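A.,

Following up on our hallway conversation. C-alpha cells first:
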C-alpha cells in the first residue's frame, strides 16, 4: 500500500516537472515553477515517510506489548508449577 502511494506521489511529481519544462514560459518563471513543485514533492514525500514511520512504530509497540504479556503469563505459569511441585512433595 505504502509503495503504491509513494509511486503515485513520485509519478505526479515527475509529470508536473515535465509539464513545467515543456511549458512555453520564460526561464526564470520555469525555474520558479520547478522550485515550487520540488518543494511540494519533498513535503509530500516527507509526510508519507512520517506516516510510514508512525505505522511501523505503532506495530512495533504492539508487538512489544504482546511479548511482554506472553512473558508475564509464562512467568506466572512457571511459578504456579514450581509451587505446585513443591507443595506436592510436602
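Then the amino acids I'd put at each of the 90 positions:
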Amino acid at each position: 500500500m505504502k509503495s503504491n502511494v509513494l509511486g503515485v506521489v513520485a509519478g505526479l511529481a515527475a509529470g508536473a516537472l515535465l509539464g513545467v519544462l515543456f511549458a512555453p514560459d520564460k526561464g526564470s518563471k520555469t525555474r520558479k515553477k520547478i522550485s515550487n513543485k520540488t518543494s511540494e514533492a519533498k513535503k509530500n514525500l516527507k509526510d508519507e515517510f512520517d506516516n510510514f514511520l508512525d505505522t511501523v512504530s505503532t506495530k512495533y509497540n504492539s508487538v512489544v506489548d504482546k511479548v511482554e504479556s506472553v512473558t508475564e503469563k509464562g512467568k506466572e505459569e512457571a511459578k504456579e508449577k514450581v509451587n505446585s511441585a513443591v507443595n506436592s512433595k510436602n
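The two ends are 60 Å apart (CA to CA). Curious whether your intuition agrees with the design.

B.
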